Amino acid sequence: MSSEYAKQLGAKLRAIRTQQGLSLHGVEEKSQGRWKAVVVGSYERGDRAVTVQRLAELADFYGVPVQELLPGTTPGGAAEPPPKLVLDLERLAHVPAEKAGPLQRYAATIQSQRGDYNGKVLSIRQDDLRTLAVIYDQSPSVLTEHLISWGVLDADARRAVAHEEG
Length: 166
Known about the structure:
Residues 13-69 form the HTH cro/C1-type domain. The protein is mainly alpha-helical and 166 residues long.
C-alpha cells in the first residue's frame, strides 16, 4: 500500500471516528479492547497497513459500508442522512415464526458477526434490507411496510427506503 493511499485511508478512518464522537480511547472502550487505541491511531496516521479483513471489521464496528473508508470514494452526500434502520428485537421475538423466521435468523447472524447481544435493538444497513427483500421475495418498500406493521421497524424507515429508491 503506498504511503499516500495509507494516509488517505487513515484520514477517512479518522473522519468516521470523529463523526461518531469517539476518541481513540473511546474506540478501545466501546470495543471492549478489541480495537486498541494505538493500533487504530497508527491506521489513521497511515503508519501501519490495514488488511482487508481488519478494514471490513473496522467498518462493521463503525457501522459504515467498507467503501466509505476507501480513498477515492465520496461520502454518501452532504444532505441529511436517511434515518437508520433499527430492528426492535423485543417486538421481533413476538412475531410468529412463519412470518418472521427468516428475519430472526438473519438478525441472529448479524448479532453473532458483531458480537452484539444487547437483545433490544439491532441496526441494519440498506444492503441488509435489500437482502431480506430477496429472501422474502418482495421489494424493499413492501418489506419495509410489513416490518412496520409487525412493529419491528419504526415508521421513519419509510424515509430511508424512499431515500434509497429515490
